[in-house]
Amino acid sequence: MAEYDAVIRNGMVIDGTRMPRYRGDVAIKGGRIAAIGRFPTSAGAKNIDATGMIVAPGFVDLHTHYDAQLFWDPYCSISSWHGVTSIVIGNCGFGFAPVRPSERERAMQTMTRVEAIPYHAMKEGMPWDWETFPEFMDSIDRTPKAMNILPYMAISPLLVYVMGLEAAKKRPPSEQEEREICRLLDEAMDAGACGWSAQRLDPKGPACVQRDFDGTPMVSDLMSDDTCYALARVLGRRNEGFIQMTLASGDTAHDLEHFEKLAEFSGRPVLFNVVQPRDGMPFVHRGNIAWLEACRNRGLRVYGQAVTSDTNMTFTFVDWNLFDEVQEWCDATTGTTEERLAKLSDPKIREGLKNARIPMIITEQFDLIFVTGVQREDLKHFENMTIREIAEQTGKHPIDAMLDLAVEDGLKTEFYAPGPNQNMDFMKEMLDYPYLIPGVSDGGAHTKFFTGGRYPTEFLQKLVREHNMMTLEEAHWRLSALPAMCAGFRDRGTLRVGAPADVVIYDYENLAMGPIETVRDFPGGEWRRVQKAKGYKHVMVNGEVTLNDGQPTGASSGRLLRHGA
Prior knowledge:
2 domains, 6-stranded parallel β-sheet, globular
């Protein structure tokens, strides 16, 4: 009888600890790594040939929004296709628990704009067999999964549950309400939540880019500092959990001091979103890194999550919501397709759009946006032209050129915009700081615009192999061990004896991102953009192979990681 359930043979092991790579075998038993070394072929009931391959710990993604998708997609694709084996959900304060049955509809509507999750997919794909957060955890627990899942207590639904939507958008909680909010956080932590999360963007500030479905601020945007500190003290009293926050008030000094106080009051890790290089604005990422280093020197556990993917977007004005940082654009792009058509055609509204500040979420220059697809045959000649080129050809203002085309095409014209982080020298500067966590994939969100779940493959292919920004040993520490340690994943993120066997086996030289495709595989007939990977031979979760050459095996070996375990 074989000693081990499986042995991964003759691979180049990069164990996630930053120690030098070595050639060896990895033996697995009972879902865990039982031994590492050299073993006879008879030692394993199953032998996996990894000759010529890298064997590394599965990737850990701390910033996803698979809260709905996990119920109809056990693989949480696209992340699993790119070697991710563990995820955190409930980011930015957005989620679905606690939610009363009477408030479910509004909870789903909220997510259609802020994270652009298709309504009909949520409506048909979510079981809604819970009200409280512990019941939500139990529902995840009994749902088949090919991914390990660690949930935050999301603050927006918590505030609504205690205060009601209208009150939560108008005032801070009373003393009694705040006590109840803290009690429910305790209850969630008892059930295994990893901590709490919130988005706090100044509703009147220039960075309020993620809003409710009606264009109003999210509940958590209106939350007070004092409520945050009360929640931080809950984690401090318990000595467990961590905090994720996206914060922009327009007052940088206040924002950074706020993170420092959260770290002080809680004594727990606080994840700062986001650090990102911006073309022409190096002072942004440099300032963030200098502040993070000052926190480290003071012993404050504040860690930056870095945008390491190319943040290009492909979009139509049927769904587009990421100009919401500019009120005029937010107003013009809310409502049904018919309402958007009317507003984007209105000369008075159009004039306001031309006079408004240009949105910065993708690119500061409309002449960098180009047309990738047009539905109407008589407008096809505009395909592959930039908005600047169309404006010059038609004698129009670039915004008129863009919106006239969109309106004439029933808002179905597809536009492509490059992200603001194309400067590889700035990317290298950012990644030279060793304690930044790669990713911010937004997996499960913005599914019609963005394929950020590809980030581990992009990181290894583009930043490591092509641009030589760091060693593979460093890269795997960043992609697995560092996020696992910051987020309290117990025993995960490295390949060592006794650790759960979350493993990726891949062909480094041929690792690549596939093309962006459109598929209609969501419930309710909804479509999304996806991007597959090439080069991953096997992905293992808790000792079982979940993907072979990119194809799902049907294994549901993922776990709900209560308290990170």
